[in-house]
Write a structure and sequence with these properties.
There is one protein chain. The chain has 86 residues and is mainly α. 58% of the residues lie in helices and 0% in strands.
Length: 86
């Protein structure tokens, strides 16, 4: 697994935890620890997103950072596919 994939997995893990904690707070609205964890995970997720986007380009079409053509930068996702030997 390369560093790009590791970053994506970490971002996904934090985002998943954020959603789960929000669901938990639906039934435990006064839980200060869960609220604190959400804020911590949002900060960490945003930091990782910024790192990813500075190295590999935008994660979503709306996060181009002012350069609306950044999404066309190489490599395209299918350019990274390794050929399978038969």
């Amino acid at each position: 697994m390369d560093s790009r994939e590791k970053l994506l997995k970490c971002i996904a893990a934090y985002d998943f935890a954020i959603v789960e904690l929000h669901l938990f707070l639906d039934s435990h609205p006064n839980d200060k620890a869960a609220d604190s964890k959400i804020k911590e995970y949002i900060t960490k997720s945003n930091k990782l997103r910024h790192e990813f986007e500075s190295k590999y380009g935008p994660l979503v079409a709306t996060s181009t950072g002012g350069n609306r053509w950044a999404w066309i930068s190489n490599p395209w996702p299918w350019d990274n596919v390794e050929e399978v030997e038969e």
